[in-house]
């Protein structure tokens, strides 16, 4: 298997697991505190609907939202990267660095750690810009 294809597959799974973990994190906090904003969820456990989501759930929702803005773009660029054969030797570094940055970004967002959250965000975006340059270079 091509090195770039291999690493693309690995990070795709790792990014899925990270996003799934955010959903589990939200569910854990809702269930352990029996606090649900959605009326039917609250009624299901015999509670009134909460006026606001728990702070932990709000932070996780922001992490999810940021992932939805970044991960699909990365995955699309990754497909293009593999298809055009852009610098296969750098694929592991770029793909794993992006993925690591997304993990760090989420952990920092959940823990409220600045400036590390912003640093992690820009590391991930930087990887995507490098990928763009390498894709375009491979097309010439």
From TrEMBL:
Membrane topology value: Multi-pass membrane protein
Residue ranges of the TM segments: 6-28, 73-98, 118-139
Top enzyme category: transferase
A single MF term (Gene Ontology): glutathione transferase activity
Catalyzed reactions: RX + glutathione = an S-substituted glutathione + a halide anion + H(+)
Keyword Endoplasmic reticulum listed: yes
EC number: 2.5.1.18
InterPro entries xref list: MAPEG-like_dom_sf, Membr-assoc_MAPEG, MGST1-like
Record-level GO cellular component terms: membrane
Domain of life: Bacteria
Subcellular localization, as worded in the UniProt entry: Endoplasmic reticulum membrane
UniProt keyword annotations, A-Z: Acetylation, Endoplasmic reticulum, Membrane, Transferase, Transmembrane, Transmembrane helix
Purpose: Conjugation of reduced glutathione to a wide number of exogenous and endogenous hydrophobic electrophiles.
Subunit structure: Homotrimer; The trimer binds only one molecule of glutathione.
Protein name as annotated: Microsomal glutathione S-transferase 1
Native organism: Vreelandella subterranea
